[in-house]
Write a structure and sequence with these properties.
The chain has about 220 residues and is an alpha+beta fold. Helix content is about 20%, strand content about 35%.
Length: about 220
């Protein structure tokens, strides 16, 4: 089976969980063993994140490189006043401040990070450091030094703000880490912050509106070419 399948990834699933699940469905449909079925994905989502995951089936896996660099859009929720060891809700939290920035302060901070910026990927990420995944080093308690890299925040628009929760929509270039963006915003506001929720809605022109639930009984009917 060749084509593209858009999935609305549920929270708690890794991107590989989704790939493995769909691979088994296709294998059963085609009377093959799972290892004989090619399924890949672009744009890994963390387990707690939800939203658009693009699966490439069969020969379409060869198109991964051309699709990887597409811009992405996220719905982001961040919590002010605390930081997290992982930058998200999975890590250990530390209280930093009970200062409540004004809405204008929050909007200004978002605008200050719009455009091309230098960003250091989080230690708990899949970035390779000396040939090893950063998150493996971090979990082992080893020092993780990652060089900053340029990314582009095309827009960051505030949706709602009720302290300590800030909700905003971010359209960003490939390679942008939203967890790091949130931490940088928290530092600028002098409150600290971590990403408490993340949902991806677009990859290039592909949209979550076209995505299917991974448990859809007729999932394979929605493969496009």
């Amino acid at each position: 089976m060749n084509g593209i399948l858009l999935i609305d990834k549920p929270s708690g699933w890794t991107s590989f969980d989704v790939v493995n699940y769909v691979r088994k469905i296709i294998a059963n449909h085609e009377g093959k063993k799972p290892r004989q079925v090619k399924v890949g994905h672009i744009g890994t989502l963390d387990p707690l994140a939800t939203g658009l995951l693009v699966l490439l089936l069969g020969d379409y896996t060869k198109r991964a490189l051309s699709l990887t660099k597409l811009d992405k859009t996220y719905e982001v929720t961040m919590k002010l006043g605390e930081t997290s060891t992982t930058g998200d809700d999975e890590g250990e939290k530390t209280f930093t401040s009970d200062t409540q920035p004004s809405r204008a302060d929050v909007e200004k901070a978002l605008q200050n990070f719009t455009g091309e910026i230098m960003q250091i990927p989080p230690a708990y990420s899949a970035v390779k450091v000396n040939g090893q995944r950063a998150y493996k080093l971090a979990r082992a308690g080893k020092p993780v030094e990652i060089e900053p890299r340029p990314v582009t925040i095309h827009s960051a628009k505030l949706k709602s703000y009720e302290y300590p929760a800030v909700e905003f929509t971010a359209k960003v270039s490939s390679g942008t880490y939203i967890r790091t963006l949130v931490e940088d915003i928290g530092r600028q506001l002098k409150t600290g912050a971590y990403m408490s929720d993340l949902r991806r809605t677009n990859i290039g022109k592909l949209t979550i509106k076209e995505a299917r639930q991974v448990t859809d009984a007729n999932l394979l009917r929605h493969v496009s070419q």
